[in-house]
Write the structure tokens for this entry.
Amino acid sequence: METATAELIDGRLIASEVRQEVKASVDAWTAKGNRAPVLKVVLIGDDPASASYVRGKNRACAEAGIESETMTYDADLSEAALLEIIDDLNTDEGVDGILVQLPLPKHINEDRILRAISPAKDVDCFHPENVGNLVAGVPGLQPATPAGIMEMLKRSGIETRGRTAVVIGRSNIVGKPMANLLVQRGIDATVTVCHSRTPDLPGVCRGADILVAAIGRAGFVTADMVKPGAAVIDVGINRVEDASRKRGYRLVGDVDFEAVSEVAGHITPVPGGVGPMTIAMLLKNTLFAATGSWT
């Protein structure tokens, strides 16, 4: 009997489609005499990964017709000064979206900063008001990574209604909002959120028609944890040493990709899976913040 191989969910391709749709919407918006949407990114310190990620966001904005500016500050910027910067951006009618790049230096209270951003301009969807709207099913800004995963499921023809979904990880950025999106009316999945205290985690995962891994541990999900034919979404981005690579490492996900591919029905790769969708949905959130519409 031939070994089955999962169908690859191409995040780069789907993200490209979303970005083209955002560009078309921005073009239609500005053609009516409106100014282009404006995103301000606040970057504190010189973390290379954060700086690289921000550059990617800026390039994506430019391609979509969204104006973006990165406001860069030294790592010793005080919390009070950062709050003043955010307050100025909140009251600036020429700014539609505000994004404070995480992580922040240890002397700055991350929660206090995220709460200071106006909910209407909170394109990362971290403000408690936006989180509450998400839980209640109120249309509006959505956290980019979970929203991107929902877009991948929809555009890949993966049914959610009446299906069992398991989310591994309970972070505020991915795990919790992912579960809330999957359980909404019209999506209609039955959702279980797993974490380090979950008994018989492999057994719970084997019951999933849709398995979302967001735990931050390389290769954590193995083939014996996956239901045959399941859709496996890998959110993890982990560095593992690899002497054969020029940079000395390679990126892998939370899923043992090669082994799980022989069991699953659909699977996302790392890189090239969920990652590109995060930036694409950030653009979509900025469009919504500027226009009040997704299209």
Remarks:
- The chain has two domains: 35-119, 143-275.
- Residues 35-119 form a domain with the Rossmann fold fold (CATH 3.40.50.10860).
